[in-house]
Amino acid sequence: MSRSGTGSGERSEDASNETDKQPSRRRFMQSAAAASTVGALGALAGCSGGGGENTDSGSDSNTDSGSDSNTDSGSDSSGSESITIDYLNAQAAENSSIKSHFQESLSTFEEQQGNVTVKLQTASYGDIRSKLASTVSSGNPPTMAEAGGGGLQFYLDGKVPDHSPFIEGTDRLPGDYTAANLDSAKYRGEYWSAGGMRHTNSNLGINPKLFSQVGVSDPASELSTWSGFLDAVRQIDEQTDAIAYEETGVPGDLESYWGYARTAYTGGTDPWMRQSDDPENPTIVVANDEHEDQGKTDGMIKTCVKMAHEFSSSESAQRGDEEIPSLMLTGKVASFNYAVPTANRWRAIKDDVQFGWNDGEGDFMLLPHPKVDADFGSNFGISELEGVEGEHGGHMWALEQQQTLFNASDTEQNAAWDLNMFLLGDDEFVLPAWGEHYESLPGLQPKLQKILDEYELAQSTEQAYKNADTYGEQYSTTGAAWDVRDTDPIRWTDINETISEAIAGQHSIEETPSLVRSRIQDRLAQ
């Protein structure tokens, strides 16, 4: 498919009906023999990935980099002094392909620097927090880590430096950061983070065959609202043996709810908590009888639980998103709201998976989360949502991938910052990493169009890019704007775990918003 002249969110007119191919190699590589001035391509998460803790050195490869690195780091780690960077990362543990890409790219970085050695340590996203906490408490933190939201707590505890001097010392930052990175890297106006290399976003995922079977012919239109989606799900539930809608209800994967909770709102308004004049006492919207938006937030909490009770399996409270591809590709699940850009998840189950609608014969299609329409509340029996209208939107994973420098010598911090800029800005790392090895949205906005230009992407990946671009701030990072110390436990425990308990039947739908509110209040009072 040709992408010349298209915007970052555009696709070819018939993209939803195409049969997607494996990602092509970068186009300039096809003419590498004639382009002697172009250097060789360095061969080079969400939820918990595969693989446990590991330690690697990136010093084995002799790959040259002729890329658009533009490190413009604002630091100076050059010199004859040998510098070692201990780098703890979870992304490299997501699959063997991205891990190899990291290793070979780090070798390229070492060659560029001359006096820097990078010791890569990997841990899954499920393990990295405990691994990092252990190293920090022992007094031996890494030089740089993909610390996620936990990095904010280390910053507030004085273990992480103010990143503002590094960011302000470049010509590219913060201007080139994505909106999600800008929101996530700041706490009350201060940069506690260096930004995230990549993001993922949540979207609606469907099995085209099952939706076609109940009469859907134009999913982008017919499933664009919650009422339209609900009608189709009800028909699948009545007419087929498939699970019409499966909620990924385990607390660690209820980011699905984080995404579609925004669809009752417009303009990127946060559903849960708003800043107030007192930063230590934010306004909690959940179950707040005095707040005008209470109904929207409480209504979407109830929607989450009720959808699971009426259409999901008895296992949904323990269901993780990693289980969905095999269930959907075998026709056992028709839809879910945790669809992400990573097409390789689906290819790992079925080599010739057909992405997109394909006249109702596709295997998997990604769409925006349905938007709340004025009739949905009455159609689904959620009184709080009667007459409410919202926009397409979703959760953007950006806080989870934030990278932080830790307290170290000036030379070590400067070298770590150079590494951060390499991972953010070097085309030979960035484009294959997020366009091929682990399809995601890059952490710098200008790189998004470059990936679209260089790769034939699966419909699911390209549509996820389009959703983030078309609906802008409606795809926001949950918790990034709260500016509270305990953002992560509020997200994962006070909100997600409480809703998961309701899905499991441990408390009623009606009392769930009040329980969420009470737990957030207790957390903030600690």
Summarize the structure.
The protein is an alpha+beta fold and 526 residues long. The chain has helices spanning 27-30, 96-113, 128-137, 150-156, 164-168, 179-185, 208-213, 219-222, 226-239, 255-260, 294-311, 324-329, 344-347, 376-380, 410-425, 427-437, 445-454, 459-470, 487-503, 512-525; strands at 54-57, 83-89, 116-122, 144-145, 186-187, 190-191, 198-201, 203-206, 273-274, 283-284, 335-339, 365-367, 394-397, 404-405, 441-442, 475-476.
Characterise this structure.
There is one protein chain. With 526 residues, this protein is α+β, with helices and mostly antiparallel strands. Strands 1-3-2-4-14 form a five-stranded mixed β-sheet. The chain has a four-stranded mixed β-sheet with strand order 15-7-13-16, sandwiched between helices. Strands 11-8-12 form a three-stranded antiparallel β-sheet. It folds into two domains: 207 residues, D-Maltodextrin-Binding Protein, domain 2 (3-Layer(aba) Sandwich); 235 residues, D-Maltodextrin-Binding Protein, domain 2 (3-Layer(aba) Sandwich), CATH 3.40.190.10. It is 37% helix and 10% strand.
